[in-house]
Amino acid sequence: MNYRHAFHAGSAADVLKHVVLLETLALATYKPKPLFALDTHAGEGLYRLASGGEADEGIKRLWDRRREWPELAAYFAVVGRFNGTQLKNYPGSPLFISESLRAGDRFVAVEEAPPAHAALQEVLRAPHSQIFLGDGYQGLKALLPPRERRGVILIDPPYERLTERSALLGGLKTALERFRQGIYLVWYPIKDPRDAERLVAVLAPLGEHLCVELLTWPADVRSRLNGSGLFILNPPYGLKKRMGEVVPTLAHILTRDGTPRYRIR
Ligand SMILES: C[S@@+](CC[C@H](N)C(=O)[O-])C[C@H]1O[C@@H](n2cnc3c(N)ncnc32)[C@H](O)[C@@H]1O
């Protein structure tokens, strides 16, 4: 597997994913009861931003003007914790999760690639966190249901293998059999919107859900990635309203041709 997230770190897709993840965690940690979090495809944890990477069209579009968007303050606060006065680093999902959790919560990150796993061990040191080297879909089976009985699970595959979608669907079905009430966030790319629509149609019957999509290019432009989406199973109460407050702002800033395009449904 030669997937390297460093080039993609801080992209428009990462910004959407991490904003939705943070908002979900904020709602899930509203109650004082302990929460379990699982990141099945954790990545390296912290990325050095090089020029020419996808962050140019993502976090770098937002950072210098961040005070204009107080509705995104929680997101900027986490990015800021890994930077000095200048934006040089971008935190990955394990750091967004660990920064959101409280002392009594618990977090498990799973990563399959040994170099990414080793890098993550260097940066994720919070006492409530554990890191496993292995297959995230197996983690869904081995780690669920959590003893806390409340959980947020991020599934963020690279979609490079032809078998990824069947592994995703199988993993989700197993997870739901073991932990029906978990909050599951599934990230997906949008290259051809019809293809993304097919994935959502397969996931939709699994249960109550919310879909958040943002296109940075018009759907008929043949770029590497026109946009991305999050499929959220068992969304916490209030998430749809919160998405209505932050996603239009993101769509406005991240559009590449001046036309904001997003869907919350
Ligand atoms: C998109 S990146 C993860 C980015 C990370 N979730 C974030 O938001 O910062 C995908 C990662 O999944 C890893 N990976 C791929 N297949 C995996 C699997 N079956 N189980 C666990 N990790 C996997 C890759 O090595 C890569 O580091």
List the helices and strands and how they pair.
Layout: H1 12-28, E1 36-39, E2 46-48, H2 59-62, H3 73-81, E3 89-91, H4 93-100, E4 106-111, H5 114-123, E5 129-133, H6 136-143, E6 151-155, H7 164-178, E7 183-190, H8 193-203, E8 209-215, E9 227-233, H9 239-254, E10 261-264
Parallel strand pairs: 1-4, 1-6, 4-5, 6-7
Antiparallel strand pairs: 2-3, 7-9, 8-9, 8-10
Can you put this structure into words, describing what you see?
- By secondary structure, the protein is of the alpha/beta class.
- It has a single domain, classed as Vaccinia Virus protein VP39 (Rossmann fold, 3-Layer(aba) Sandwich), CATH 3.40.50.150.
- The chain is built from nine helices and ten strands.
- It has helices spanning 12-28, 59-62, 73-81, 93-100, 114-123, 136-143, 164-178, 193-203, 239-254, and strands spanning 36-39, 46-48, 89-91, 106-111, 129-133, 151-155, 183-190, 209-215, 227-233, 261-264.
- It has an eight-stranded mixed beta sheet, sandwiched between helices. The protein has a two-stranded antiparallel sheet with strand order 2-3.
- α1 runs parallel beside α4 and α6 (136-143) runs parallel beside α7.
- The longest helix has 17 residues, at 12-28.
- The radius of gyration is 17 Å and the shape is globular.
- The structure holds S-adenosylmethionine.
- Residues 1, 3, 5, 17, 40-43, 92-93, 110-113, 116, 135-137, 156-158 line the site of S-adenosylmethionine.
